[in-house]
Amino acid sequence: VDLMGPEWAEKGRKAPSRTALHSSPKAAQSELKVEMERLGEEIRDLARSANRKKPASGKGVQRV
Fold first, then answer.
1. How far, in Å, are 31, 38, 44, 57 from residue 35 at the CA level?
2. Where is this region: Disordered (predicted)?
3. Cα(34)–Cα(53) distance, rounded to whole angstroms?
4. Can you give the residue ranges of every domain in the chain?
5. Which tens digit of pLDDT belongs to each residue from 27-40?
6. CA–CA gap between residue 20 and residue 14 (Å, rounded)
7. pLDDT tens-digit profile of 16-26?
8. In the chain, pLDDT over 70 holds for what percent of residues?
9. CA dist., res. 10 & res. 60, Å (int)
């Protein structure tokens, strides 16, 4: 199975295998949206913990 779809090939990277497994592009798109939202929350959490000058869950890189 060729994982390089036209829209992914334009960006020059492979499609995430999870979305490639979907037969319908709409299902893949909504799953991608969920993933993006989850990452967004993670980034906000990291930003908050960075603002408190503490590594997130004890394993972040601490800036001095």
1. 6, 5, 14, 21
2. 1-36, 45-64
3. 29
4. 23-54
5. 888 889 999 999 99
6. 9
7. 555 455 568 88
8. 45
9. 34
